[in-house]
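[Q] Does anyone have a clean structure-token version of this?
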Amino acid sequence: MKLSLQLLRLPALFMLSLCVLSSNTLAQSSTTLEEVIVTAQKKEESIQDAAIDISVLSDDDILNYGIMDISGVALSTPGITFQNTGVWAQVYLRGVGTRVSQAGLDTGVATYLDDRYVGRQSGIMYSMTDVERIEVLKGPQGVLYGRNSTGGAIRVITKEVSDDFEGKVMMGLGDYGFKQGNATLNMPISNDFGIRASIQTRERDAFKENIVPGGRDYDDLDSIIARVKARWKLSDDTTLKISHMFASSHDLSHQGAVSADVGNNAGVVLGGITTSDRDKIASSGTAMEVTGEPKSYLDTSSVRLETTLGQYDLAAYLSYSENDERKWGDYDATSLDTVDVVNASNQSEELSGGFELTSDNDGPLSWVIGMNYFEMEVQFDYDLRLFANFGNRPNSQGLVTYNLDSYGLFGSVDYELSDKWTLSLGGRYSSEEKDVYLVVSPVPGRATLAGFLLPHSDSEKWSEFNPKATLTYNMENGIIYATYSSGFKSGGFNYPHRPGGTPLDPEEIDMIEIGYKADISDTMRFSSTLFMYDYKGLQITRAANASGAVTTENATDSDIWGVDFDFAWAASDNLVLKFSGEYLDTEYKDFDTGGRVPNTVLTGNPNAVGYGYDLFNAEGLPLLRSPELSWTMAAQYDSGPMSFNLSYAWKDEYYFDFVRVPEADSLRQDAHGVMNARATYAAPNGMSISVWGKNISDEDYLTDSVIGNNNQRINYAHPRTYGVDLTYEF
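[A] Here you go.
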């Protein structure tokens, strides 16, 4: 949809929300907007004083918007898109992200759970519980957050142990057999020691019914997450924090591709059946026979020490995680095993740590210096079935062991040049080394493709210095700032990395950002940012030549520019309105590539099977997965014991891959809007009851769309759901 038409619709929708929610909305309000505190720049500060483009979702926002995992964060934040291929989450921020980061590759948007960097795409798909807030840092965060934050960083910050005895118990029911339970208990044991424990379980029937007898249904939910935190005040100046989290899932949430074939699907030609229905799937029972129920487990332990050393504050942290996944997926959208991963074994261990030393004085100079370290080992292998060949023979591309060692040294200095001007300078030196070792699959009966080339090993090392400079003008009611910053995403290896393969080079981004933040009044707040990127060495995952091999390569460079804005208004004593958006303009530079086209079109033969390529140069085309306009609106109305929240998120059309002919139009995501609502009655005794609805208009939109050699498939996002929650807080 054209930008001009969209901009015309925004004021109308905004004014409509005013009229519907309150007849006295335009009256003078005595309510002031709450101050939002963030720690995005390694210090506590008001979001209005932070010279950085950042979106924040509070614990109330997470509840009201129905955010259950990272997909909900993307839906509720302009500029982010979320897709997934199987368990591989794909997050893009301002057009920057990663499609697949199997063993050897990394994401372009860094995700942190408190201090812990989450190294695997599948590791960010777990549910969220007992979260204080989520900070979305837009643009390259090369100095303070380092590795693989070229697109930005998402920080999930959980609630700390408090000094009060308090807790919450919540139970919920919904359609599709949805059941959830959530309990939190915060208990001070003594004046110096306290613990906080939380647990959450969620179950739901599948959204997609399998039409193949004996086949498992897809896109169900069966998860549990539990966390225990302890805080020990060793002295007036020193605090030790310890936490452990366990998470597991036994579901195929967000999975289940169906046919969008315009050409002839190879699986159907060979005798399989398929479906294009949103609530169905055609998938064989082979995976259940080979693997049994899908499952994944995550254990992570963390420790953090905070102390004061004279005029300095020191924080040191360490985290260890183990991840074990046994999941599978159908990638041909038919009942025949033409492209099916019936067993994917993915185990990883992660160790991260670091320290931060921060100045603590009232002078014009303040600074932070630090070091962090991250190492990871991944072992990955899978059982791949192709064309039901040789009696449905198990295949593998080999067992890969991938090792990563990285560290960074960073520093940032703020100097108040005068009462009005502040200069900030920072930099980070990053070093990364990756090793891959590929051997024949050790699983009996599993044939390793091109196994005669194995074993094979390779390694590579990269280093980079990323500077940042910000000049801030401090107004009476806000700030104006200009920033130059850069980001670095390490190189890597494709899977499988066989003899003759070459490592990928790093991605690099240089950004200029000009921002404005102001409290227009006690009831109105506004911020806006203009940003420009010079994006070099894009690591693009797709087939870029006629060979048909899907790999990741440094394909091209890109130019990006855009505008972000955030507006909040306490319109009356009862009503708060929020309106945020992003306009994004992107284009590829010189980029020789190919777009998938049905062989029926390429050859003119109506019986031709599968899909080939139309080779072309994509210079001037917009980046994939990058909507031109995205925006969100939210209205919170409170009156006595009643509260009501209505939110709406819009994204313009964007492309999963290049569309060269009308028959490939399934690769285009239509413009779409998703509306959520939640109404709550809170009794004086701590009890409350809420009714909620998600995707109320039952909007059809996609989380994945792919055209492969043999099929054309799409994966639908979740349909309309509704339910009720009963909560007791004390």
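[Q] Thanks! Anything notable?
[A] The helical segments are 3-21, 59-64, 70-75, 266-269, 286-291, 389-392, 599-603.
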